[in-house]
Amino acid sequence: MLKHPLAALPWLTLFLLGGCIINEPDFEILVPEQGQLIRNLDKFEVQLKISEEAYDLGSVTAFVNGVPLELLASPGGYVGILPAGLGLEPGNQLIVSATRLSDGTPRARMVEFSWEPLAPNLQFRDEFVEDPPPVETANLEILHTAGRRQNALLEVTFREGFSAPKQIPYRADEQTVFILSDNGMGDDPFAGDGVFTARVDFDFENYRERKSRDLLTLALREEVPDELIFSGREIVTKKELAFGPALAALSSPTSVTLVPAAAAAATLDPERALMVRNLSVVADPSRTFDPCDIDGDGLTGNPNGAWSFKTLMGQMANTTATGIPLEVFVKQWLAGWAQNFDTVNGGSLGGDWIVNDDVVPDREPGLISSILTPWPKTSAGTLDMDQAPFRLLAIVNRVDLRDAVGYGASTASAGELRFVFGLLDMNSCTPDRMSAIFEYTVQANTCNDVINYAQEWEDLDLVHPPFPATPGYLSHLQSITDPVVAAGAAPSEPNGSSIGQLRTSEIAMGNPWELREFTLQQMPLGLPVQNVLRMDTTKQTPDIDFTLDPGMQPTLENYINSNLADICNQEHVVPDTWMGAPFMAGRADFFPNTHFWAPGIMGSAACTNDDIRFKFSVNTCSGCHGADAIDPAIDPPFYHVDPTSPPGTPVALSRFLTGTGSSSIPDPSPIGGVGRDFADLDRRATDLQDLLATGCLGLALTADSMAGAVH
C-alpha cells in the first residue's frame, strides 16, 4: 500500500503558487464523494465535471494519495482510473487541479474517502430480494447533516420468528454496501441482542427538502387531507396533520423513524404519475388508437402508436426474433376462450381448458360473436390488426410492487408498468364488458435503478404543466414506457419481453363473470424461442369451490390455519397444490358477495379470525375484485378500472382506488367482522413519496412485503 505523508501532497505546492482549494459548480469531483466508503477496488474510478470555457483542460491533473491518475475524456468531464498495481488505504485523499483561464491561477479540489473491502465470506441473499427480511423497527440516528456519506447509524429489529444471519449486506450500487450486524463489532454495541446496526449513507437534505415541500403543499390546500396509516392495502388510522411538530422534527434532526412508517398524506397527483387516464394522454392521436373514436374528438389515432394494442402485442410477439406473425400471436391469445380438444396442451375431450386440474369452460360462441366476427378483416380475410377493437383506458405505475433490490445479485424488479385496455363492441361501436391488462415487469439491477425509475414518474407530476397533456409530458411518459415494453427489453425472458402477465376481466363472452391470466409459454408444436400468451393459474387465488363447497372447505381451512403468521403479515404466496391436490385456480369467477371464507379459520394472537379471513381473501383476485374491496350495494361490480365508462370521459375508478370515505366496505362473510377502508391511490402516492425521501434505506427496510400483492 502507498503512504501519503502530507509533505508530499501536491496541494501544498498549489498553495505556494498562490492557488487555493475551491468549490465551484464548473469544476467538481463527482465520484468519489466526500466521506464515501469505497467497497470494490476493481470498480474504482474518479469522475470529474469541468468546464472547458472556464479551465485549461490540458492542465487537469489528479492524484490519489500523491500518485498521479491517468485521465480519460468522457461526456461532461473526465474519468480517472487507478494505475495497475495501485491500491487504496483505509483513509485516502484525492486532489484534482486545473488552471483557470481567466487569471491563469491553478485551482484544486480535494475529497477524503475510505476503503474497506467486503469480507470474502459475506453472503448476499437472493431470496431476500423478493421476500425481504421482515423488519419490525428501523431507526436512524443522524450523526451529521453536512454530507450524505457515512453520516447515520441505522438500528433494525426483525419480526419474531425470523432467523436472521449475524450479518446482512445490502448493496445500493457497485461501491456502496452497508452491512446490518448483530456481532458486537464496530458500530454494533452488543452481540446477539437482536438489534442489528450499520453505519449508512443518508441524504438528509433530500429527506428534509422533500418532507418540507410536502408540508408546504398540504398547507396551501383549501382542505388539508388526513394523514393515513396503511396495513397492506387497508387504511387502519386516520389523523389530522399537525404542521408544528412535523416542521420541528425537520428543523432539529436527531433521529428518523423508518419503520413503522409514519402517517402521511398524499401530495403526488395520482392522475399524472400513478393512474394516468386523462383523455389527452390515453386518446393521444399519435400514440394510441381507437377505431370507434369513443372520446369524440374526430380522430381514431395511430394503430402503430407507442401505446396502441397492436404495438404492444407486436413487441410481445417479437416477430423478428421468434418468427411468429402478429395475427397468429393474437389469435393464439384469443384461443384461450375457444374450444381446446388438445389434451396434451391443456385441453379436454369436452373442449374445455384444464389449468392446474381446474376446468376452465370454453366460451367459443361468445368469442366468435363478441370479438372474432365483428373484428374488421383484411382483404385476405385475416384479422386487421390496424383495426384492433381495443382502446387504451389507463397507463398505470405500480412501483409499489417493487422488489427489495440490493439484497441479492440477481436481476430484480422496480415494480410493474401496466396498460389497461377496454374491448369495443364493433357492431355498435360502444364499450363492451371486457378489460385486458398488460402487466410488465420493470427490470432493475441496483437500488439506484429503482430510485431513478420512481423519480421519472414523480417528475411527470412536478415538471410539466397541468392537463391537458403537453407534448413535453407525452414525450416524457413515452420515454419511461418505451424501454420497458420494447422487444428485447428482457433478453432472458420468453420472446425477450418484459411482460409478466396479461389478465382479463370479462363477461362479454358469457357467464359467469371471470378473470383469466395469461403468460408467455411455448407455442404448441412451436420452437423453444416461440412463445405465445397461454392461460396460467390466477395467482393468489384458490379454486372458488374451496369456499363454496362444504366438502372442500377443510382444505382451505388447513391452508389458512397452517400459514397464519404469513397471512397475518400479508406475505403468503398461495401454492399450486395443497395437501397433495391442485389448489390454485385456473380462473377466478365473480358473483355477488364473492369472497373466501371457511368456518374453521382460527385466527391468531396477532390477527383475529376476521383479520385472517380478510387478509387472505382480499389478496385473491376474487376477493379484491369482489365483496372484500367493492361494496355491491354501492359500487359498480368487479371492476377497479371500468371499461364501460361513458364515451368522452376518463375511465371510472372504484372506491377501492379513490377512497371509501365514510362508507366502509362491509365484511361479506358470516363472521360479521368490521368494515374496511381503502384509498389505494393515496397508499401508492405516499409509498412513492417515502421511497424518494428515504432512498435505498427505504427500499431495503420495507415494512410490508408486497411479494404476494398482484392487484
Question: How would you characterize this protein structure?
Answer:
By secondary structure, this protein is of the alpha+beta class. The chain has four domains: 6-115, Immunoglobulin-like (Sandwich), CATH 2.60.40.10; 120-265, no CATH class; 274-334 and 385-535, no CATH class; 542-584 and 593-626 and 629-675, no CATH class. Helices cover 23% and strands 26% of the residues. The chain contains 19 helices and 33 strands. Helix 3 packs antiparallel against helix 19 (680-700) and helix 11 runs antiparallel to helix 19.
Quick recap of the structure?
The chain is an alpha+beta fold and 711 residues long. The strands form nine sheets. Strands 19, 22, 23, 24, 25, 26, 27 and 30 form an eight-stranded antiparallel beta sheet that branches. Helix 3 runs antiparallel to helix 4 and helix 3 (204-219) runs antiparallel to helix 19 (680-700).
Q: Would you tell me the structural class of the helices and strands? A: alpha+beta
Q: Which spans of ≥5 residues are poorly predicted at pLDDT below 50?
A: 1-23
Percent helix: 10-25%
Distance between the termini: 55 Å
State the total count of DSSP E strands.
33
Q: What's the alpha carbon Rg, rounded to whole Å? A: 28 Å
The largest β sheet comes out as: 8 strands, antiparallel
Bulk shape: globular
Q: Total domains, how many?
A: 4
**Mean residue pLDDT:** 92
Hey, roughly how much beta strand do the residues contain?
25-35%
